[in-house]
């Protein structure tokens, strides 16, 4: 068994390697980047048998055509429905599908949403830069040579976890998938500069309908709609820009800052879109409508816990799925120092047995 | 408008909280933000992902699920109060930035000289004669926001910004001086270039500068420029950081 090697036959519109983001360097001016729709990305990795933040491919609207040049493994497609196909035939999304040398993965065209993820067992193994595989194209850092994929590029996947084959056929049930109803408002926690807006300005923001403008990319989505009134100047002494921050410059139109946002900026921030709704926004397209709804921080934290709970549930399903058909996997040693995964060989009656183990995370 | 009280803790969504120390660009305020950032990272608070010092505040990023958010808020409040007495006791660290002034490396040096009424040599002497303070990093990876340039060197930005300014360009824009950390467009006047790479993602650390550091520009000649550039390309160059001086007065 060898790990997957993928050859890019057609690059698609904007196809990049992303992971959970480049954390820990924002203080030095390095943006986080990472997958735009983290809930979909993480479910894909769980289905493929990976850690949830492993490297994967983010596909934008028009997907790439990838040829499996070598190896075998699992692929799971999640996120937007962009017409995922294997060997020219529609293939199931939210499902671990076995692929091998000679298979072709492609997309027939967008049906709903904007960004899909292709997660492969073993993860897409580009060299980590500043501890992350995410592509940040503006500084040409990370991912595949710091840029979007081009025709002819070859990507390698890592060695999958030992139980990868047992993920085959595992499906993320509908109830555990993220849902992004197009009419649902984006929930916003007020602050850090909501005091620099008039009551009228805040009523405008939370009470009006906005349209996603054509300036909408991985850095941020600019909205068009009624002008939001400031108490005074729209500029502040530059400070940090969190993920989902709603900046309102002097023109009064909100801009929601996303994965590739710069680390600092000098515009007032009326609120921050809660983490679970950032994915919903990243699946919307220019011309679509957006409303904002104010919620307290505690509610946003509860939503984040609910989202994490669903991923824990999917991991539980994965453990059950993997252990169901086969024989129990014996642990060669026990105790607190047992590494979370590994392989060992033991000899019984002159016959060698290979044993592999992997810790299945226990969750409350 | 009502008077704001500092320090104050500001909610910035379900993954970030901000400790704000004031409402002005001030070294004392800034050094408290930087010191709190170091402190919170030293503590290793469970769930904290990043600490970002800016001019007058510190943003702390956290995982909303792995963090006891109430405890993080109260811990920050507690530490903010404590920093009051600790401020100014951090050691002053000065990073030396070797700079080749003028010529093709600083094509706007003569314009700056003309605008300020100094000779080019005097511009260089004044620019390298005063240490600058790094308030924060941002804009691009490793780009320092500096304060403390000799006010007599103030020169307006170019009317037509250049499409590409090379990494390492040392420039003056209005009252500020700066160093371009990666090749990017910009409208500042280029007076020199450092062969030191401010940002090298494959090096450890990728970025030498830190918020709260001082910067001293040291004029160099072409031969030394070439030497340092070669070492920088190999990733073996280590900057001189003077670290044992007393805190700022």
The unreliable regions of chain A are: 327-332
Largest sheet of chain B: 8 strands, mixed
Low-confidence stretches of chain B: none
Radius of gyration of chain A: 22 Å
Task: Tell me the count of domains of chain A.
Answer: 3
How do the SSEs of chain A run, as a string of H and E? EEHEEEEEEEEEEHEEEEEEHEEHEE
Tell me the radius of gyration of chain B. 20 Å
Structural class of chain B: alpha+beta
GO molecular function (chain B): ATP binding; hydrolase activity
Protein name (chain B): Kinase A inhibitor
InterPro entries (chain B): CT_C_D, Cyclophilin-like_dom_sf, PxpB
Domain Carboxyltransferase (chain B): 7-209
If you had to describe this structure to a student in words, what would you say it looks like?
The complex is a heterodimer of chains A (364) and B (249). Chain A contains 4 helices and 22 strands. Chain A is an alpha+beta fold. Chain A has 3 domains: 5-176, no CATH class; 186-295, Cyclophilin; 327-359, no CATH class. Chain B has 249 residues and is of the alpha+beta class. Chain B folds into 2 domains: 8-86, Gyrase A, domain 2; 92-245, Cyclophilin. Chain B has 5 helices and 14 strands. In chain B, strands 5, 6, 7, 9, 10, 12, 13 and 14 form an 8-stranded mixed β-sheet that branches. In chain B, strands 1-2-4-3 form a 4-stranded antiparallel β-sheet, with helices on one face. In chain B, strands 8-11 form a two-stranded antiparallel sheet. In chain B, a hairpin with a 4-residue loop joins strand 1 and strand 2. In chain B, helix 1 (27-43) packs across helix 2. At the A-B interface, strand 15, strand 18 and helix 4 of A face strand 2, strand 3 and strand 4 of B. Chain B: It comes from bioreactor metagenome. Chain B: GO terms for molecular function: ATP binding; hydrolase activity. Chain B: Keywords: ATP-binding, Hydrolase, Nucleotide-binding. Chain B: Residues 7-209 form the Carboxyltransferase domain.
